[in-house]
Specification:
Elements (H helix, E strand, L loop, with lengths): L1 H25 L9 H18 L4 H15 L1 H9 L3 H20 L1 H4 L5 E2 L4 E3 L2 E3 L2 H23 L2 H11 L1 H6 L4 H27 L1 E2 L6 H14 L6 H17 L9 H19 L18
Antiparallel strand pairs: 1-4, 2-3
Amino acid sequence: MEAYLLNLAILISIYSILAVTLNFIMGYAGIYSLAHAVFFGIGAYASSYTALNFSASIFITLPVAMAIGAALSLVLALPALRVRGEYFVAASLGLQVLAVTIFSEWKGVTGGIGGLIGIPPVNIAGLEIYKPGEFIFLTVVTLIVVLVVINRLVHSSFGRSLQAIRDSESAAAAFGKNVPLIKTISVVISAALTAVAGALYASYLAFINVESFMLDTSVLIMAMVIIGGTGTQAGPIVGAALLLLLPSVISYLDFLPQTEIGSIQQIIYGLGMALLMIYRPGGIIGRKKVTSAGGSK
């Protein structure tokens, strides 16, 4: 039971990083992406390839994963400069589909459908971190660092510029903001930090394949942000914990048919998001909307 709870806590920490980094561009910049799992996968594959062929040192695998994730994020940033709203969602969906194809077919780097096995554990100054009790400490510390970095960015002049662009690009441009540059930087930062989660995920499981980085993963991460509360610090973490704990709780309900657990989860996710959009569009942690009369609803 202890091992199960530790494993669940590690996954919640990793997915919290994913949700927090998506919230950075979604909640503060207004960039809605369905390709977040792409950079999750890029971080996982880049760090795994580096660990298998060069060095498993975290001081090498993480920078490599972040650098490659940041560089390839320009593929997402470019359409973000030209399109907005639902058009960008469609563009990010196209990138997600393309990335899955590359992950599946580039066997020399990704291992193809079979994936990569025997990925070495995280190595910190010669010490291998593979026990769940040790790894949970690493993932929680990483989550805290990511939260601090994003919090500092959000409360800086750069963060205020991001929120101005989210509210009105034309108004931000009129006030002298370099909208294309700011949006590009935000996407690059988000992708680089997302790659960190991918590196941790790969080293923890010691095995990865394309199934972990498909469209349903991107949708799940977006659901975590929306349910928890976009544009908030704690919301994405609450959403990640809720959506990862829910399957565990459902699996313990004996009166539910075990063969239908997956379908029941999807129904609950969809129903939960629909109800939140109706009654609390800001999410669980998000603020309630304020009416013109000064009341809340």
